[in-house]
Design brief:
The chain has 165 residues and is of the alpha+beta class. The chain has one domain: Alpha-Beta Plaits, CATH 3.30.70.1230. Helix content is 36%, strand content 32%. Strands 1, 4, 5, 8 and 9 form a five-stranded mixed sheet that branches. Strands 2-3 form a two-stranded antiparallel sheet. A two-stranded antiparallel sheet has the order 6-7. The longest helix is centred in the N-terminal third of the chain and has 23 residues. The model has no long low-confidence stretch (mean pLDDT 83).
Length: 165
Amino acid sequence: MKKAYSSWIEMQHRIASLNAQWRGGGIEHPFRVRMGINTGFCNVGNFGSNDRMDYTIIGAEANLAARLQSVAEPGQIVISYETYALVRDTVVARALPPITMKGIGREVIPYLVSGVLDATGKDVRVFSEHMTGLDFYFNAGMIDSTKAPHIREILQGALKALDDG
């Protein structure tokens, strides 16, 4: 399951990187993705008739994932308890208030993913913010310690420029 969770997180990180590139190319509004993830059994394949055929997924578990996606804000990942139970040793997530969803006969407790844990169980701090005049992505776990002084200088210079207005 570790590979699967890293795929969702990596998708969000890659989207942040693409947004920075696109803003540099003149695209003002970022592309934001919200994800809803559930774990369970579904049917996947070609469904329909000879007149109209679609390759799709059907089932209650897919419906729940779609409903969780609608709860997420742009840039967020919301997972079901079933998914959280499988990845709780690799992600940082907090339970949101229980919700009821049309077509689902029980209360669902969604979990908002806010980060990942490294192999030692330590929270990997990732900061990401993108708006006009700011494209910031910082993953402390990926920084070579020899580069830390240079990064501090850059950040301190940016803070000074912000304070000077």
